[in-house]
Specification:
This protein is α+β, with helices and mostly antiparallel strands. Helices cover 15% and strands 28% of the residues. The relative contact order is 0.12. InterPro entries: DUF4314.
């Protein structure tokens, strides 16, 4: 087991997990650590370490897989910087603008989601979970979809209607 699990990650291993896990809820990340010996791994061709983002986090993060724990630590440090920048951008954004297309708590129906690689289906409904933010010419609208996913709209190009 690597000696340098970041101090703000808690052991979230469960008795039936294939390998130990450590989670930081504030960063929305979980580290999974597999056996050092390839033959003992759940997936022998896979890397030993995985940094897994939680589905509902903003801003979104990427999976990182590596046999070098230093890569995992570097990705965590990058995530800390991304969150700090994201929070600063939100602080500077005009969150309570009267021209926002939706407000926190509004229910909406998706018309289209153009640019997401794993989009929500048109016609899906959800709830706006925080105040929309206007940044760099577009609205970012955090939505908890009724199908359980958390994925923000970016308007434009996404389109939705208020219910």
């Amino acid at each position: 087991m690597p000696a340098m699990i970041p101090a703000d990650f808690a052991d979230t291993s469960w008795h039936n997990d294939a390998c130990p896990s450590f989670t930081n809820e504030a960063l929305g990340l979980t580290i999974w650590i597999d056996y050092a010996e390839l033959a003992m791994r759940e997936h022998p061709s896979g890397e030993r370490f995985t940094l897994e983002p939680h589905d509902e986090i903003e801003p979104p993060a990427e999976h990182v897989n590596s046999d070098d724990f230093g890569d995992i630590i570097a990705a965590i440090d990058e995530r800390r910087s991304e969150i700090a920048l994201y929070l600063e951008q939100r602080r500077r954004a005009h969150i309570a603008r009267p021209d926002a297309p939706f407000a926190e708590g509004d229910r909406l129906r998706l018309i289209s989601m153009a640019a997401d690689p794993d989009p929500i289906r048109p016609g899906s409904t959800g709830t706006v979970i925080a105040a929309p933010v206007f940044f760099q010419g577009a609205w970012s609208i955090p939505v908890k979809w009724d199908n359980g996913r958390g994925l923000s709209l970016v308007m434009p190009p996404d389109q939705a209607e208020k219910l």
